[in-house]
Amino acid sequence: MPIEADLFGPEQWSPAMFWNELASGRHYRVALDDDGSLLGYAGLAVDPDGESWVQNIAVRRDAQRRGIGRALLEDLLAETARRGVGSVLLEVAVDNAPAQRLYAGYGFEPIGVRRGYYQPSNTDALVMRRDAEPGADGTDHG
């Protein structure tokens, strides 16, 4: 929760939201430092219809720019491939250019905007989508 509060302020997820994610069987991964302290986390929701959503990716400020967010994203994408998921979607704040560049580097493309998605700041969210490459996970999603 300290990472969530620091990074997202009034738009942070509540403990109940995280517990609900875990109780719903979402795929979550954490990154730990050598001393066992939490560096970051990422979550993925997989829809039975063959879509998945990146729920969140967060890296502690003092651990950013060390490849941790990239490693967490790669883990989520590997999980989608393992499950044979055809497409991965996410929302990212329109003013979060570093995250958008990270996602674009992994083949995510903008497909829409959710106006006023983040509350209480009323910040828009850019919706991005990445389709699995045919054969990348042993199946053809085309």
TrEMBL record:
List keywords of the entry alphabetically.
Acyltransferase, Cytoplasm, Ribonucleoprotein, Ribosomal protein, Transferase
Instruction: Return the SUPFAM superfamilies for the record.
Output: Acyl-CoA N-acyltransferases (Nat) (SSF55729)
What Gene3D superfamilies has UniProt attached to this entry?
A: 3.40.630.30
Q: Name one GO cellular component term.
A: ribosome
Annotated localization: Cytoplasm
* Family indicated by similarity: Belongs to the acetyltransferase family. RimI subfamily.
Q: Which PANTHER family match?
A: AMINOALKYLPHOSPHONATE N-ACETYLTRANSFERASE-RELATED-RELATED
Protein name per UniProt: [Ribosomal protein bS18]-alanine N-acetyltransferase
Q: Which organism is it from?
A: Micromonospora humida
GN (gene name) = rimI
